[in-house]
Amino acid sequence: MITPTIDRQLPNGVADLFFKDAARRRAVERTLGETFARWGYTEIIPPMFEFYEALGAEAGPMLREEMYRFFDRDGRTLALRADFTIPTARIVGTKLYDRAMPLRFFYVGSVFRYEEPKAGTRREFTQAGIELIGAGTADADAEAIALAMSGLRAIGLSDFRFTLGNAAYLRATLSDLGVDDATNSAVHDAVRRKNTPELSRLLETSPIDSARQEAIKALPGLWGGREVLDRAARVAPNPSAQEAIDHLRAVVTRLEHFGMDKSVTLDLSDNRGMAYYTGILFEGFVEGLGFAVASGGRYDNLIAHFGHPIPAVGFAISVERVLTALRERGADRMSVAPDVIAACSEEFERIQQARRSGRVVEVDILDRTPAELREYARIRGAREIWSSDGQIEVLE
Amino acid sequence: MKALTIALAKGRLLEPSITLLESIGYALREAVDSRKLVIDDPARSVRFLLAKPMDVPIYVEYGAADVGIVGQDALRESGTEVYEPLLLGFGHCRLMVAGKPEFRDAEWRMITGLRVATQYPRVTRNYFSARGLSAEVIEVYGSVELAPSVGLADLIVDVVQTGRTLKENGLIELEQIFASQAAFIVNRASHTLKADLIRALIDGLQEAMERNGKK
Fold it and tell me: Using the beta-carbon criterion (under 8 Å), do B188 and A287 form an inter-chain contact?
């Protein structure tokens, strides 16, 4: 008799997957990988852990805080990968910087973050995504967004909507405000939460000039269809902000050519998460799930940190959240049942033949009686029993 | 199914929330009086959920409700990632540090091993640790103002409206953490997936508030 003890339980934020859950996750990973591959992306497999210096340097305080860190024997700090973008940037910046551009990489695998498990994510969770490296163009941005949409469509989530913003617009509007750090971070926070009243209150007492104030106050309301770009252009406080709007306009025009612009909501106050984004930012949402299933953006300064300045854009789809969304719409045809359960006396060549033709054949290795075999087949959900006397019994 | 689900906080915010929603054409008073927790208004394809104030931000963050009306006190305490585009101008209160009169003049900051009783453990921890004060936060579920007089805690952190309850328990206000009022909050996914419905609702609420303000 085994007594369960504390140290045999799982730590918070990890999960065991088997049977249908494991099959479901692999099916989503496979479909996404195949979709990315058809767009010309090849797989990249970075190590599970590397030096914290490399991973943490450009991660920004939030992600850095969430990294799992430990020491090797020399006392150097290592970290588990918390995303695929930083390792990919390291690989490109140190090894692939002089190859013909662009480089198109996709990845599928676990990342680790010490955060409270929430809505389908865990501390170990699965990301499937791409990095498109070596092009700073609107075409590259549009390809990344279109591919994220195609990925969701391929796994059966076609009712998505994407938000699209531009970190460059935010930066141009919110940089060098001439206020103290606390006010500065309060302003950023209020923008992120679209907290218009708080923003007005903060600006009222600030020394910021009125044109800039107008641009900042407009931010939380700059969401919706294409007309948002016109409104943003009118309040854009400087040439950089204007450029950022022009760039977004170019991206939307390309998405229009793809017939994908209808699924996009522009949102210029969107500034979630990663500190390394420099250009477009996007998030994908599907009906019935309160959290983004896909998120990505442009990070033109990240690879430079590893030696060579190369622009890049990418996104990750959260496989666990996708699985939650799929489960909630009950679209589940996943099966891990064998097609055939064969008695051990069955001729091996015949079994192999069936396997070669694509059927799943499981052999009884417990010498069950016909009645026991039938009961076992029922529990396993098998479709046929090949019994020892050569009979084929088809189950409903 | 493109309908909107609206979470409302039970308690002191419920009555003014209903009045505001009625002023933009939602008739839900009768249903509320019937003590149902889920109220459907099929004519306007809207569903209302009545939840504990502390739960409203969670419902909205997870998308169980698209939008909600909740006090900023509960919102800050929840630590949720939601949009908060509108303040609604009712449910005003203050989240205060309070204690016995001998702690006047910031005397409480001199105490080591400070104990603070509260229903707002997250806000309290952040507030004290941001000031380098190592307070032991004791989470209680009600009658917070009792804690100092029975020796459970030195201080309390709680919402104060008139200050009467404090006075009755021999406590005084020491420091304001923040002022709070009812806020309209929006789930990040719904903000995009149901953009038109949510924009219409925000505009409607804003107009109603301006109308009320002018009266």
Answer: no
